[in-house]
Write a structure and sequence with these properties.
about 230 residues, globular, 8-stranded antiparallel β-sheet
């Protein structure tokens, strides 16, 4: 039942809001510099002029159709460009999450321990030659471990204590779907990535349900996409 709910959620229109105070008028341009929305929403932003083409700097975060309709696909920030002849204008789209189950680990592969320590705001519970373990007390999320090879960051793992609570399955499925592309989902192991395809992905996320010796637990592994 636990994994069935997660699978169902993974495979399951609103306006954008402005977060800029610049109200200057222009014959060709966006009314605001920055627009904020949440994952899954689609809509048009306020624009002056007639654009003949639209493009996104990162379709994984937000894509735009030929009529200027912007769709928020995953959490992140990108730029939308509107063009017509020699004229062009840009605005920033900030896609915010609905689910904030935990803060994603640093996935700058090859980073040093010092880089990880500078990034992390959580409490360091244990440091070993090849690992850093952080304590997390946020609902079902219990811990985070970074692993290093030759002093360089090689993977990270988040421990979730789900105890077969279906609401945790729903939350985790939505949390991951907001941030990553779904590659495959099964009852025991699921795969996600941070890009639209293999070539545009740098991180592979593997979710293991009830791994051997850890019934009632979920491991979320982050590693380089190779």
């Amino acid at each position: 039942m636990f994994m069935a709910i997660m699978i169902a959620v993974v495979f399951s229109s609103a306006s954008f809001t402005s977060c800029s105070s610049d109200d200057s008028e222009s014959s060709f341009g966006f009314s605001k510099d920055t627009y904020m929305t949440i994952v899954g929403r689609s809509g048009k932003v306020s624009f002056d002029g007639n654009a003949s083409s639209w493009s996104s700097s990162n379709d994984f975060v937000a894509s735009v159709s030929s009529d200027g309709t912007i769709t928020a696909n995953h959490v992140g920030t990108c730029e939308i460009t509107a063009s017509s002849g020699r004229q062009s204008a840009k605005c920033t789209i900030d896609v915010e999450p609905i689910y904030t189950t935990y803060t994603d680990p640093l996935v700058k592969w090859g980073a040093s321990k010092a880089d990880v320590k500078a990034y992390e705001k959580r409490t360091l519970a244990q440091e070993k030659t090849n690992s850093l373990t952080y304590k997390i007390e946020k609902g079902a999320v219990k811990g985070l471990q970074y692993n290093f090879e030759n002093g360089k960051l090689s993977s990270a793992m988040v421990l979730i204590d789900h105890e077969y609570n279906t609401s945790i399955a729903t939350e985790m499925a939505e949390f991951l779907k907001e941030r990553y592309r779904v590659i495959s989902v099964s009852a025991s192991e699921s795969y996600f990535s941070d890009g639209n395809d293999k070539n545009s992905s740098s991180t592979l996320i593997i979710v293991q349900i009830d791994p051997s010796g850890y019934r009632g637990a979920m491991f979320v592994y982050y590693m380089p996409y190779e």
